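Researcher: Re-running this chain for the archive, since the previous output was lost when a drive failed. Same request as before.
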Amino acid sequence: MSARPSDATLPSSGPASGGAGLREANLGATTIDIRLLGPFQVLVDGSPVVLTSSRQRALLATLALSAGRLVSIDALARGVWGETPPAHIRGSLQTYVMRLRRLCGDNSVVTEPDGYRLVVDPSRVDALRFLRTLDQAAAAAEPARRRELLATALDAWGGVPLEGVGSPALAAEWGPLLTERYLFAVEQRIDLDAGLVPDARLVAELTDLVAQHPLRESLWERLVRALARSGRRAEALARYAGLRALLADELGVEPGEDLRRLHAELLAADADPVGHTVPRQLPFDVAGFTGRGPELAELDRLPPGGASGIVVEGIVVEGIVVIEGTAGVGKTSLAVHWSHRVRERFPGGQLFLDLRGHSAETPVTPGAALAGFLRALGVPAETLPATVEERSALLRSRLAGSRTLMLLDNARDADQVRPLLPGPGNLVVVTSRNQLRGLVARDGARRIALRSFDDRDATALLAGSVGSQRVAAEPGAVAELVELCGRLPLALALAGERASRFSGVSLAGIVEELRDQRLRLDTLRDPQDAGTDLRAAFSWSYKALRPAAARFFRLLGLHPGHGFSLSSAAALAGAGLREARELADQLAAAHLLNQPGTDRYQFHDLLRVYAGELVETETTEAERAAALRRLLDWYLASVAEANKLVRPDLLTEDITLDPPPLPAVRFAQHEQTIAWYTTERQALTALVGIAAGHGWTAHAWQLAWLLRGFFAERHDRDDWIATARTAVAATRDAGDRTGLQYSANNLGSAYLRTLQPDKALEALEEARAASESGEGTALAVAILSNLAGAYYVRAEYAEAERYAMQAVHLARDHGQRTFVPHALLNVSASRIGLRDYDHAAEAAQTAHEAFAELGDRYHAALALGNVAEALEGAGRHDEAERAGLDALAELKELNADYGTIDVQITLGRLKRRTGREREASGHWAEALTVSQRLGDPRVAQVQALLATVPAETPSPGDAPYP
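Model: Regenerated structure tokens:
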């Protein structure tokens, strides 16, 4: 019989105001000009109009700065009275507006519902005309046109903006803006004048400007440049010295970077020429370099930063390349190896420096690095400039256009690198554990991200250490060794060195040493060389973290998932999502975390080991327990949310959850829940054991219980059984009788799904024994129904029917409407086993209708399958075929492959009885395919049916059936 028992559970419109304003202005034929760039002045039809009241001037200025547009009552009040408006603002404004109309024309100011509008073309207000002209200049493509527009705008400037207006609020808001736009325009025009206007004239203008604005460094820079261009270098240096003294006295600061660079260039130009040395500083090439073919090709071909790179004979000779990756991934090896391959393409030589950004030693400062490079280029130590800026400028001067290759190894951050950049005509290769995002974004660097080796390159690296014969002799051990080393080149090299040192030890022996996670990093180290100690290498990255990021990294060592979401990481750390994202981003930037997707992170395997060590040694037991409890609460809350779509019947009144540390995941569709479960499955199953191990019994059994719907749908039977066993043991040891009922019933269901009826009965009897006063509960009904299913699988059909009928009566008596059809489904299966086909069909049909009324399409289809089998047994073949085909169509539409197996078996048997061998074979062949794919124990049953098909029957794959 193929009938299945039920797995019982608990179940701004409108026209522009400016245009309207122009039309209204024409009615009175009055032109108003308002001048705000200097002393306040109003002209009406070309004649000056005097506004004696400061309030009137402030009102008109406020309206003028929004010419043609509505100005609200609040904005007018701020402009006229500042922070101390009168009690009756509207009345006072009406009085001033009436006086303005008398002076400027009746139609000059229009009353709006929410304020007033000055009816004037914006071009008649000099400040607005000034700003518009500057915008046009910025958009102009031709320098001559831009210079013309700048000159036009600057002609309107009359001195201090808003002078005499009498509005401190307007002066504070508009004065700095207008002055800054003016000065920036002057600087742009002076830049465009260079080469067209005599430098002496520009020097005179700039001298006047710096006197008016003594702290504006951009004006001083242009003055120093103009003096230098005109041959007055001593005066230029003197002006710089004067500014430096002024800034020191007034503000206690040095001049900015641009001025310091200019000063260094002037000093370098005045320095005595020295002999030029071609540096050859590359370290030894890596012996037996392995892999990295794509990265080498990218270094050869791709211009760093796009169009800024220059390629000669297929090799990049200008730009910046950043090779970034985690500790031990082979950044330096790749950079040095490639540099040796192409060194002849760089006639200016090769500069190399270990910046010690992540090292036991102090990082190299930019000043010290520059001093070393300049000495290597022949600059005497006694003539080196004093400041970093001056040394940087001198380095750029020395290397300009020289086509030199500079290799900066182990950089800490972009600020350490940036002063060392040699400028155009040279190539810089930087290696770093940090992503150096600023160097990519601001300086146009090209990024090459190194990841761990693939299996082929990892095996080749091992073969280089231990020999190809040993690798070929132990392929299984090699594959596991590669996995345990996380395919990290340094780890593989250390493992290979250990294997070569102990040639009498098999590779399997090395693998055995590495399997112990607690000793793995001890094994992968050279105690005499910190540079090849993985734990030390990881520690340098870890110690560079800020305290909050270091704590975040440690706690992530507790996360049981191979990968994890940002939300789960935040819950673990007790942080908000925004803070967690910032911390995770810091770890990803330092290559202590990988980020395979948006808000999704994972450790490199060996970094996970290191984080696990840290969380054990640098956090208290109480802190670890609190973190895991937060994580459990969040996952439980999220699984409960998912079950609202997957198995809402599992959310019984006994499922009481603690509030999660941050909102649980929300799901809109069933497919989203399955995708989430698939991604989080490793963590979810592990957390059941973690909860049990910490004595959090309720967390353990509730999580196992709420996961059962996912286990059933995704056919994860091993996880189902393992988590249920853990929950049974935990609740039994804790004396939690309610939890034991749920857990043992859950375990019985898992054994039923895998057709292990004896184990199912043992678990279900324990569940039943744990229920003393719960005979009327839904859980009691579920246990009885599952007992019926277990006896059915044992082919003890009378006993199965007895338990199933008890479940039906108990559910009906206590109003458990949801569970009646589950029990009836088991009644029908038992009666099919007893060959009581008509009554079996009746029970199955009743169950089908009840499930349909409840909206449970899946179980309704299973019940219809039982109807088909019962009718087939009763000899009512046409009715049976209709029911079976309907059930099969529904299950396929639901993608419920597991449920189709029994229906396909029934339809195949029915077709066989009616002489349709080919169609029968087709049904059984599909049942076999599904059974094998799902690992279902009915494979042998279906194979036996197919074996009865005559050999001459055509291939079942083409059988015509729905």
